[in-house]
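I hope you will forgive my troubling you with a question about protein structure. The matter concerns a single protein, recorded as an amino acid sequence and a row of backbone structure tokens. Please examine both parts with care and let me know of anything in them that strikes you as inconsistent. Here, with my thanks, is the record as I have it:
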Amino acid sequence: MEINNYLELLSESNAKAGGGSASAFSGAMATSLILKAYNMIKKRDPELDDKLQEHYEQDLLRLTEYYKEMIITDGKLFEKVLEAYSLPKENNGDGIYRKQRIEEAYKDTFDSPYNMMIHAVKLYDYIFTIKDFSDRMSDSELLIAQTLIDACYNSSRVNMALNKKYITDKDFLDKKKHNILKIEQSYVYKRKKFFVLFLSRD
């Protein structure tokens, strides 16, 4: 999709793209900038791949594709919510089925930002992996990538909290609660580590 078309879609009053899509776009830009830093370093150090973990570039490319897909998929998930709300509710049976469909649709919209948060935290590890080989030029790309990781993580967290309000399944939420706490702790730790590493540079 052309960037102008996407931004126009994002600004329109429809369910095709919104906050979740923007979160995914931030994640895609973060991965692209980390890849840019990697390519800049590799240009002056052709043996870089031998010094990194196996499949470093391929794994980052997969994450880029994941976020690119979520730019569109997140909107499609919310369309499912709207479809569920449009189901008939005239009689008791219809009303119960409609309520179940709405709940299931919101669970999917909850999982979308939940998974984006998990991947956003992982992106820090790719920065840490190449930081020893980086210089001031590639550092600038990694610093901007970090701000985009923050944007992806925090906006996904907001979307997840908003969708949670419409989920009554306590077992579903309880299972997620423990993992969310671990994700948040990991995010805080890695974010602090990032700034310690970069602020300690000459």
